[in-house]
Each structure stands twice: as structure tokens, then as C-alpha cells.
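Good morning,

Attaching, inline, the C-alpha cells for the sequence recovery test we're adding to the shared suite. The designed sequence is right after.
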């Protein structure tokens, strides 16, 4: 059910982008218990002039390695689950790719389950009884 969009500056090798996606996917499995194989990700590289961000917002210094992770998902996760997810992603990216935790920007967009169609023009998460 989550749709993950990962945006970063151009220039990273394909293996880097794949590993970022895998780390985010694993955190979704662990923190949000999403179903196995529920992996839908879009990874986009941008020229420097097209990825604009404040380098020091809220006192957090961001470098050119800053990545943006936006996830659209069904609503219902607790604040504690979200905090575990944020930490798992930042820690995982830091450990595997040496990405600074300060360079991990995450935004969750929650939507009702009826807002999903995985194909066939149907809302698969809407039961016939609803």
C-alpha cells in the first residue's frame, strides 16, 4: 500500500539508489508491518537547480547528499510507529551508505484505504461490506 518517492541529486550510481529503496522498504516492513512484496517505489534524480531545500531549516544542516523520501500510505499508524520508522530509515541509510542522518528528509502522506487502486479499475482495499 505505500507508494514511495525518493528524490536526490543526480550522480549517484544505480546500486546506491537501489540500496536506498531497499532500506526504506525494510523499514516499512519492520516499523509499519506492510505486507511482504508491497513495494512500489519511484526514485528520481534531479540536477542541483531542480532540488531546492533550505540547508539549515530547524537548525539541521543539510548537504548536497540530502535525500527526500515521501511516502503515501493508508492512515492509521501511531506516532510511536512513525518515530520508529524515521529512525530506522535514517539509521539504515547512515550504516549502509554513510549518509548523514541530517540528510534524510521524510514526509508521510496518509490517505483512507478507499483511495488506492492497484489495477483493474478497482479499489482492492474496499470490502464488499463497506
Amino acid at each position: 500500500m505505500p507508494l514511495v518517492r525518493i528524490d536526490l541529486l543526480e550522480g549517484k550510481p544505480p546500486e546506491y539508489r537501489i540500496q536506498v529503496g531497499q532500506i526504506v522498504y525494510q523499514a516499512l516492513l519492520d516499523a509499519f508491518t506492510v505486507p511482504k512484496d508491497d513495494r512500489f517505489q519511484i526514485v528520481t534524480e534531479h540536477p542541483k537547480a531542480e532540488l531546492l531545500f533550505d540547508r539549515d531549516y530547524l537548525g539541521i544542516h543539510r548537504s548536497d547528499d540530502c535525500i527526500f523520501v515521501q511516502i503515501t500510505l493508508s492512515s492509521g499508524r501511531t506516532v510511536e510507529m512513525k518515530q520508529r520508522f524515521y529512525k530506522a530509515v535514517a539509521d539504515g541509510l547512515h550504516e549502509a551508505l554513510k549518509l548523514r542522518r541530517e540528510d534524510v528528509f521524510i514526509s508521510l502522506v496518509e490517505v483512507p484505504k478507499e483511495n488506492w487502486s492497484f489495477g483493474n479499475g478497482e479499489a482492492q482495499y474496499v470490502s464488499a461490506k463497506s
